[in-house]
């Protein structure tokens, strides 16, 4: 490759990597750029989701559920978010913080609304289908390997018995 640097466009940020700096291959140009690339690489998939209009949402804060005893029974930190046009309701009580639950509920609702309106064309649906397909292929491969091992054991057993 006669290109002096390899450039990867990840999202809106450009990460540049030289093939050799000071004789050390694979060194990033600057530590901040290396940090940025690690942060980008660690992020979850970002989808092109339909935006949520705040005027179409109804938000309620209710008492949480699950373990936690008196603290859970007293605080209204569970968020119930409803998208009025589609009728989709999301309930989020993943953390003790109301603000974090609000953010997570909006993210979940945005994915569900996107799936509702786009259907099979939704990126969320396509990723779920890809994961389902990979899991099925993995099961089939494991099943075939088990059958091969079983067949091999039977052949070895038959050979030992015939001798």
Automatic annotation (TrEMBL):
On whether Transit peptide is a keyword of this UniProt record, the answer is: yes
Q: What keywords sit in the KW lines? A: Coiled coil, Methylation, Mitochondrion, Protein biosynthesis, Transit peptide
- Which stretches does UniProt call biased (Basic and acidic residues)? 129-139, 153-163
Q: Name one Pfam family in it.
A: RF-1
**What are its GO cellular component terms?**
mitochondrion
- Determine the domain of life of the protein's source: Eukaryota
Region described as Disordered: 124-163
User: Tell me, what does this protein do in biology?
Assistant: Part of a mitoribosome-associated quality control pathway that prevents aberrant translation by responding to interruptions during elongation. As heterodimer with MTRES1, ejects the unfinished nascent chain and peptidyl transfer RNA (tRNA), respectively, from stalled ribosomes. Recruitment of mitoribosome biogenesis factors to these quality control intermediates suggests additional roles for MTRES1 and MTRF during mitoribosome rescue.
Assembly and binders: Interacts (via C-terminus) with MTRES1 (via S4 domain). Associates with mitoribosomal S39 large subunit, peptidyl tRNA and nascent chain.
Question: Which protein family is named in the record?
Answer: Belongs to the prokaryotic/mitochondrial release factor family.
Q: What is this protein called?
A: Mitochondrial translation release factor in rescue
| Species this chain originates from | Geotrypetes seraphini (Gaboon caecilian)
Its gene name is C8H12orf65
């Amino acid at each position: 490759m006669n290109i002096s640097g390899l450039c990867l466009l990840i999202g809106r940020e450009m990460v540049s990597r030289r093939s050799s700096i000071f004789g050390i291959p694979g060194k990033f140009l600057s530590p901040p750029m290396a940090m940025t690339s690690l942060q980008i690489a660690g992020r979850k998939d970002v989808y092109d989701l339909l935006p949520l209009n705040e005027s179409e949402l109804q938000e309620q804060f209710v008492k949480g559920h699950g373990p936690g005893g008196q603290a859970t029974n007293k605080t209204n930190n569970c968020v119930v978010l409803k998208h009025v046009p589609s009728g989709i309701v999301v309930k989020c009580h993943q953390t003790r913080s109301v603000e974090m639950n609000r953010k997570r509920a909006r993210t979940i609702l945005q994915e569900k609304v996107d799936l509702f309106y786009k259907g099979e064309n939704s990126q969320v649906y396509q990723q779920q289908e890809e994961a389902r397909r990979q899991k099925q292929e993995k099961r089939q491969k494991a099943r075939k390997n088990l059958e091969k091992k079983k067949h091999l054991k039977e052949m070895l057993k038959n050979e030992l018995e015939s001798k």
